[in-house]
From TrEMBL:
Record carries keyword Cytoplasm: no
InterPro entries in UniProt: Acid_phosphat_B-like, HAD-like_sf, HAD_sf
Organism domain of life: Bacteria
UniProt KW Ligase keyword: no
Keywords (A to Z) from UniProt: Signal
The name this protein goes by in its record: Acid phosphatase
Pfam families the UniProt entry points to: Acid_phosphat_B (PF03767)
Species for this entry: Vreelandella olivaria
Signal sequence, start to end: 1-27
Amino acid sequence: MTKPFPSRLCTLAALVSLTALPLASHADSDDAEMCAQKAYAMGLRYQQQSAEAAALQRQGFALATYRLEDQIEAHGGSDGLAIITDLDETVLDNSALLVRDMQACHDYTTWDTWKHWEREGEPRLMPGAKAFLDFADEQGVAIFTSLTVTRRTRQIPSPPWRR
């Protein structure tokens, strides 16, 4: 006599789950050996490869452009208007540095690799950043960045975004 279908399905499911047990314990031991920085891998892949992240960044800069247009119109021109923006992870995509440090199991939160990357790295701009900053510049709006405010450029003879 053959077992009814639901009973055979339960038996099959139990056997499949038993075969997965050694894999699960092996995965746990791999996780223990993984460096802590590898925990950021998914977030860094999202930043570098996700169409959603790129679209959200473009959307943010498009909104900033609309708001700037409104301010220029409300003030009757751009005289006296300025924008202040951070550069790191706002205008500049520094995820390449974070990936490099993660791959070396180096804790990037100590920021000890940052100056070298600023001088010799090749950062990309965030999607939409150039169009927004170009628009502001074309309108005659003064642009201040975290670098101009903190004067970090004194430490960087040729910032990579000016190359």
